[in-house]
Every structure is written in structure tokens, then in C-alpha cells.
Amino acid sequence: MKVIAINGSPKKEGNTFHALRLVGEEIKAQGIEFEILHVGNRMIHGCTACRKCSETMDLRCSGVPNDDFNKINQQIYEADGILLGSPVYYAGIAGTMKSFMDRLYYVSGANGGLFRQKVGAAVIAVRRSGGSSTFDCMNHYLNISEMIIATSNYWNVIHGREPGEALQDAEGVQCMQVLGRNMAWLLKMKEATKDSIPAPEKTQKIVTHFIR
After folding, report:
1. Ramachandran class of 18: left when φ > 0, alpha when ψ lies in -120 to 50, beta otherwise
2. Domain holding 43: CATH number?
3. The dihedral of CA 52, 139, 176, 8: what is its sign?
4. pLDDT digits (tens, 9 = 90+) for 92-116
């Protein structure tokens, strides 16, 4: 089994990285492979809502083919667990990370829901305020994709400004560690029961709107 963590911070080893690493150490301690992908410093355009990925069905974004998205997205779909990480910018998700997730999850949905029933979680690194609102926004991606969401003993938010300061947030550190153990447990439980407890069948999505 493997968990891929997505570092949505422009800083390669800022506090978002340290939060992801804390979770990952607990996951690796349970014998599960763990890798951090740094996307926050990449050239990632926002989704253009062209819906071409629904036509091509090749796990690629055809609307913006020349940035870095298609170089890194496909390996994420193959993971058993997904860990999202972002710093807080103006009480929200960092811009590049938001653009990446919009396209990542849209391509997943267009290709049959590739994240469905995978184990997922989100972690947030913040200086002071906006952590809860950003955490809420990140969880929307997990919820709409029918992912199995791992939890901790508080919201998955860690505090610090300069790189590494988050490690001084004792409660935040514990929150990441508990999350890692719970995520590993869910992955192992899912693996152990895959042959004895059938997963719910996928339901055809009903889409409605309010224009008559």
C-alpha cells in the first residue's frame, strides 16, 4: 500500500511539509509506503471547465496541456491513500494548490471516480487564523469523491510562521501523529476486509440544476 501526500506550499520544506512529514512518519511506521509530491512551486493553471477530460478519458487534462499538471497527476490516482496539504493564504487554500486540486479531482470524476473509497485526509499549516475555513474547503474535495476520510483528535491544523516553527505547536504535532496512525489503520482495515466485505456498488450520479 502507498500514501501520496501533496505539498501545496510554494516552500519545499515549510510548515506544510513538516505537517505532512509528521503524518507520514506514523504511516511508514505501520509498514505503508509514503511519498510527498511538491506541487506548490509548479506551474499549474486553473481549470478552464472545458470538460475535454470527459471525452478523452485518458487521465489527462487536455484543456491546459502544456503546464506541469499532466506530468504529476497520474501517479496520484494509483495511490491507496491521498493526503492533501496547504498553507493558508487570506483564510483560504494557496492558489497553486487550489488550481491543482480543481483539475485533479475533476479529471478523477470524469474518468469514473478514481478516488472513490480511497483513504484521504487534509492538513493545514497556518500562522494564526483561517485554518478552519481552509480545512473545510479541502475536505469538500474528499467528500464529493466518496473518499474514506481519516480523522484526528482535533482539526488537522498546525500553527507556525517560519519554516519549522510548526514543530513547536505541541497540540498540532500530536494531531498530525494521531491522524497518521488513524490513516494507517483505515488503510489496513480496508485491505484486510476487501475479500470478506464487498464495497458498495457505484451509483450513477443524478445531476440537477435550477434553470427551467
Report:
1. alpha
2. 3.40.50.360
3. positive
4. 999 999 999 999 999 999 999 999 9
Alpha helix (H) residue ranges in the chain: 15-29, 53-56, 69-77, 95-110, 131-144, 170-192
The mean pLDDT of 21-43, rounded to a whole number, is: 98
Query: Helix 131-144 to helix 95-110 angle, to the nearest 10 degrees?
Result: 10
* Residue 105 grid coordinates: 479531482
pTM of this structure: 0.95
Please name the amino acid found at residue 114. Answer: L
- 207 domain residue, yes or no: no
Exposure of 39 by Cβ count < 10 A (0-12 exposed, 13-18 middle, 19+ buried)?
A: buried
CA distances from residue 156 to 37, 85, 96, 118, 151 in whole angstroms, order as listed: 19, 10, 20, 19, 8
Q: What is the extent of the structural domain holding 123?
A: 2-192
d(CA 187, CA 206): 29
210 lies in some domain? no
Asked if 153 contacts 182 with a C-beta cutoff of 8 angstroms, the reply is no
